[in-house]
Design goal:
By secondary structure, the protein is mainly beta. Helix content is 0%, strand content 45%. Strand 4 (34-39) and strand 5 (46-51) form a beta hairpin. The radius of gyration is 13 Å and the shape is globular.
């Protein structure tokens, strides 16, 4: 049974950092890309970052480039999202999702890419 469990969210001041974790079970990361998405109140869910099944490629949306870093620990079957220099506009419920082998880019990095989602972890950036 495919399961994804996110953790690591919280309340942080602007400019601060958080590291989100997505622990997978029921499948191996060797055959699945993992994406991070987020949804702010009143807004559509949007893609944030993705790491391919081989971990050979990563993708970031423009708004987080240079601030967020996606990585994974194969032994722990866990994907991380290190978020630095957080802004108020990063406030959202963050989800991880399981996709195919490769990360889509641009408009193709859309929630329709995945049928498997975690329950989400809340990130609030506020002073």
């Amino acid at each position: 049974q495919v399961q994804l469990v996110e953790s690591g969210g919280g309340l942080v001041q602007p400019g601060g950092s958080l590291r989100l974790s997505c622990t997978a079970s029921g499948f191996t990361l060797d055959y699945s890309a993992i994406g991070w998405f987020r949804q702010a109140p009143g807004k559509e869910r949007e893609g944030v970052s993705c790491i391919s099944s081989s971990a050979g490629s990563t993708y970031y949306v423009d708004s987080v480039k240079g601030r967020f870093t996606i990585s994974r620990d194969k032994a722990k079957n866990t994907v991380y999202l290190q978020m630095n220099s957080l802004k108020v506009e990063d406030t959202a419920l963050y989800y991880c999702a399981k996709g195919s082998l490769y990360c889509p880019e641009g408009d193709f990095f859309h929630p329709s890419w995945s049928d498997y989602w975690g329950q989400g972890t809340q990130v609030t950036v506020s002073s």
